[in-house]
Specification:
single chain, about 270 residues, alpha+beta, Jelly Rolls, 5-stranded antiparallel beta sheet, 4-stranded antiparallel beta sheet, 7 helices
Length: about 270
């Protein structure tokens, strides 16, 4: 019993020291959560540079890229150095932070691998081998022979026969966008009615699902065709390993009308320039 009490007291003392050290953190030192988020992106950036020697073949280029990561977090290199030094002097805290960051990296890697494992990538997409209405279910910008994206065209016959219901949507998921993304990736859906043309534009900047809602009918007008594309405008000669999966164009039933209107309102507000 006495031994357990001594251990308990020692644990309290250690905890008190750790808490006190965190409370005494200088103002110029990043707090733990912000430091962990920054460490995560720095690790990702370093891994990217190691696998892209052509674009990061000098210390100056690597340093410039890391500085872009700092700017994305609104942090200076001096703050990074000071914070790293401060946490390194408190090795117990630093090791726990490092373990937390590595665990997050592992979880994210496993999640990406699991998502890709569920997909069955088709042969290299060749727009000349398919009809204009073909929408690939999976697209990798880094695949051999891949271009800078894909486009499709749906005429009135396709719209009436393949898209059930008065409303429909174009959606896809994105993975592989790095923390600092200098290229320009976007999608555009052009809806042509008899007397009106609507442009639904979306910049793609994050790894998540994107969805554009649309309607076959607007006031006293009917949809006659749909043009769409996803396009990557690269800033370097190296294509980032960005992949789109679960790409689909599907109709909405009338039972989903309320859900559609809510999503469409949010989407239109975001995607119309």
């Amino acid at each position: 019993m006495k031994y357990k009490r001594v251990v308990y007291i020692l644990m309290l003392m250690v905890a008190s020291i750790l808490i006190a050290s965190c409370q005494n953190r200088p103002r110029e030192v990043l707090n733990r959560k912000k430091m962990e988020r920054l460490m995560y992106d720095v690790y990702v950036a370093e891994a990217l540079m190691e696998n892209d020697y052509q674009n990061f073949n000098s210390p100056d280029k690597k340093e410039a890229y890391i500085h872009q990561v700092f700017r994305a977090h609104d942090v200076t290199s001096a703050q990074w150095d000071t914070s790293l030094s401060w946490y390194s002097d408190r090795i117990d805290i630093y090791l726990r932070m490092n373990d937390s960051v590595k665990a997050r990296l592992k979880r994210d890697r496993e999640e990406i691998d699991a998502r890709l494992a569920q997909q069955t990538p088709p042969p290299v997409y060749d727009p000349y081998a398919y009809s204009g209405s073909y929408i690939p279910p999976h697209y990798s910008f880094a695949a051999p022979g891949a271009r800078n994206g894909f486009r499709f065209y749906l005429d009135s016959t396709y719209i009436s026969s393949e898209l059930d219901g008065p409303r429909f949507y174009f959606a896809f998921n994105v993975i592989g966008i790095p923390p600092v993304f200098n290229s320009h990736l976007s999608t555009l859906l052009t809806l042509t009615y008899k007397d009106t043309t609507l442009y639904h534009y979306y910049p793609i900047t994050e790894n998540r699902e994107y969805r554009i809602n649309a309607s076959k009918y607007i006031e006293e007008d009917t949809l006659s065709s749909v043009n769409g594309f996803v396009f990557l405008q690269k800033e370097t000669n190296v294509t980032p390993d960005i992949q789109l999966y679960d790409i689909r164009m599907e109709g909405e039933s009338t039972d989903d009308e309320n859900r559609f209107e809510t999503q469409a309102g949010d989407t239109i507000q975001q995607i119309i320039p």
